[in-house]
Amino acid sequence: MFSHLLPYRNYSTININTTYHLKHVHITVARRNFKKMEPVESAANLRSQFHEVLRSRRSPLVPKLHILQTLPAKPVVEPLFQGIPVDFEVMTHYPKPRIPNFEALLNEENFYLITEGGEQGRVPVLVLSMKESTQSKRPAVVYLHPTNANKEYLRPLLEDYASRGYISIAIDSRYHGDRAKTCTAYQDALVSSWKRGDTMPFIYDTVWDLIKLADYLTERDDIDHSKIGITGNSLGGMHAWFAAFIDTRYSVAAPVIAVQGFRWAIDNDQWQARVDSIKPVFEEARIDLGKEAIDKEVVEKVWHRIAPGLASEFDSPYTVPVIAPRPLLIINGEDDPRCPIEGIDVPISKTQKAFEDAQLLNHFKVIIEPGIGHDVTPSMLKEVSDWLDKFLKP
């Protein structure tokens, strides 16, 4: 049924400036002094550096933050959308679980997880599970929404996973859903980050929340702490990628239409589609930098300002391989302009080498779906489901 999903195996056939990337790797390794380190040590060092970046722009922490705090929340009846999510069609037609009296058997939890001070430090969390279970501890899956969406948007997927024995979890990412007051909240936050440099709403701040979410999940008695998967689409897939990189408690990862080469895109003039997805911040930067048009210099300066290291030491060639040896599935579209497949040649090759060294090649899979742009398809969702089942289900 899914034979048209072709594993990406022969990376040498991609037309890519490999020489540049190898040179760039050498420079970065020398600057970070990773070359003499063992793989485990270098991974720990990179995680430590990224954690320092995350901590550098936290709002004042709430008292006794090492003690997890939650507050009750009500179900969201009319969730806020800031535009049309990238996978809107596939989600609206996703089938519901075929279980008699499913709604009566479903347990729903709504609460806020406090991750730091301030309004954005209240993370809205939705947890779905079945009330009756023969398992005292169940596997969990964290599913993360794309730009413009919210946790309620993922409910069909959460219900599906819950019906199959998972505890399924979703959150609103920063300035989305219940964390947004206007239909421009996310774009406004990106512009503010460029202007003020005090927040990191593009990827990083939500990754901080996901670290704290892992703290919470590993304190629950009904979850098997060794079986927590994380996945997401588009922006949610980027959140899953970076959360799996920084936090090894996420034991299986499956980012969808997310993994890309930010540095590669700048150097190969392939940044336009990604920039267009959050264009207001780049337009603001263009004006501030006195440019007539957005160019690669503007793009590089924006990434450095709103997500330090995203186009350098924390880019995919360095952070994706660190997920090994935990199971990792990467799914992209062949014609995706936001995540050009040529831009992931180096990270995929390095990640494959990491799994080879761990003698766990069956824990790594890349699927490039032919003829698909920046879209999520039913077959992609099925592949993610099969991947999580393979490594998380008993």
From TrEMBL:
It comes from the Eukaryota. GO terms for biological process: proteolysis. InterPro entries: AB_hydrolase_fold, Peptidase_S9_cat. SUPFAM superfamilies: alpha/beta-Hydrolases. Residues 162-389 form the Peptidase S9 prolyl oligopeptidase catalytic domain. GO terms for molecular function: serine-type peptidase activity. This is Peptidase S9 prolyl oligopeptidase catalytic domain-containing protein. It comes from Lactuca sativa (Garden lettuce). The lineage of its organism: Eukaryota, Viridiplantae, Streptophyta, Embryophyta, Tracheophyta.
